[in-house]
Design a protein that fits this description.
InterPro entries: Cell_Proc_Reg/RNA_Proc, FHA_dom, FhaA_N, FhaA_N_sf, SMAD_FHA_dom_sf. It holds the Pfam family FhaA_N. Keywords: Phosphoprotein. This is Antibiotic biosynthesis regulator FhaA. 20% of the residues lie in helices and 26% in strands. The protein is α+β, with helices and mostly antiparallel strands and 276 residues long. It has a 6-stranded antiparallel sheet, with no helix packed on it. Helix 1 packs antiparallel against helix 4 and helix 2 crosses helix 4. The chain is globular. It starts with a helix and ends with a strand.
């Protein structure tokens, strides 16, 4: 059983209580869990043949409406997400320099349904000492600032972590989830009123928890189709059982335009794009 599936099952045990309110937010906990996995993969640093270090200190930035819905449960959710990261790291043979922490923060620049994950690597003494986050601290090992990989001893200094309340720049190598550089084309899909930002070259849709966007529909295959960003963007069927319908036409591959309607199973997806 995959790590995301186990995480989802643990959350299901809380749904019947007050924690069920979390699932009414635009951003779903399993989406955040998948983003944390990708954050570990994207920031893994090989220190030697037997040790690959990944971030252990995470901040999940949410839009104001999503933050208001999730913040009352941030303690429980943070613990569950930390456990998921620990399980995933064990599976991938990753190691940490300190305790795993996942915190939620409000970001005024994000729209409902969008989120951004930032991470850094902190040694155990730093993560337990709030003063170690400030510029005057002298940690035993150099941490990576949010969005930067950890640095071995002797490496050139890294940019310092952003002060509280500031907005950090996106990680080098690509925009964060939900963030788009000004002047570039923004792309997203809308499913049942929920917006999912497209911030990577490909976006897999399906019923599996491993899909980039999960669609809970029995007529949808585990990995049903894939949107490929480009000029123009396209959608490709991934050998699904029921196929895809784009703008009323059954197809295996189609070009997407702003407003294209995609039907998978009994679910309608609207593709959107606009200049940033």
């Amino acid at each position: 059983m995959g790590v995301l599936k186990r995480f989802e099952q643990r959350l299901e045990g809380l749904v019947n209580g007050t924690f069920a309110k979390v699932f009414k937010s635009e951003v779903q906990p399993v989406e955040i869990a998948g983003a944390l996995q990708r954050e570990c993969d994207n920031n893994a640093s090989i220190w030697n043949r037997d040790r690959t270090v990944v971030p252990n200190d995470f901040i999940v930035e949410l839009s104001a409406p999503d933050y208001e819905r999730l913040s009352p449960y941030s303690g429980q959710l943070g613990d569950e997400l930390s456990g998921m990261v620990r399980d995933y790291a064990k599976q991938q043979r990753y190691t940490f320099m300190g305790p795993i922490k996942v915190n939620l923060q409000k970001a005024e620049d994000l729209d409902t349904g969008l989120y951004r994950v930032r991470s850094r690597t902190l040694a155990g003494s730093e993560s337990q000492n709030p003063q170690a986050r400030g510029p005057a601290a002298a940690p035993q090992q150099r941490p990576g600032g949010y969005g930067y990989p950890p640095q071995p001893a002797g490496a050139p200094p890294m940019p310092s972590a952003p002060p509280p309340g500031s907005r950090p720049a996106p990680r080098a190598g690509g925009p964060a989830v939900g963030a788009q550089p000004y002047g570039q084309t923004r792309r997203w899909i809308e499913i049942n009123g929920t917006r999912h930002q497209i911030s990577r070259p490909t976006l897999v849709l399906g019923r599996s928890t491993d899909a980039d966007v999960r669609i809970d529909d029995p007529g949808v295959s585990r990995r049903h189709c894939e949107i490929r960003v480009g000029t123009p963007s396209t959608i490709q069927d991934l050998g699904s059982t029921n196929g895809i319908v784009v703008d009323g036409q059954h197809t295996t591959r189609a070009t997407l335009r702003d407003g294209s309607r995609i039907v998978v199973g009994s679910t309608t997806i609207v593709y959107r794009q606009a200049e940033g």
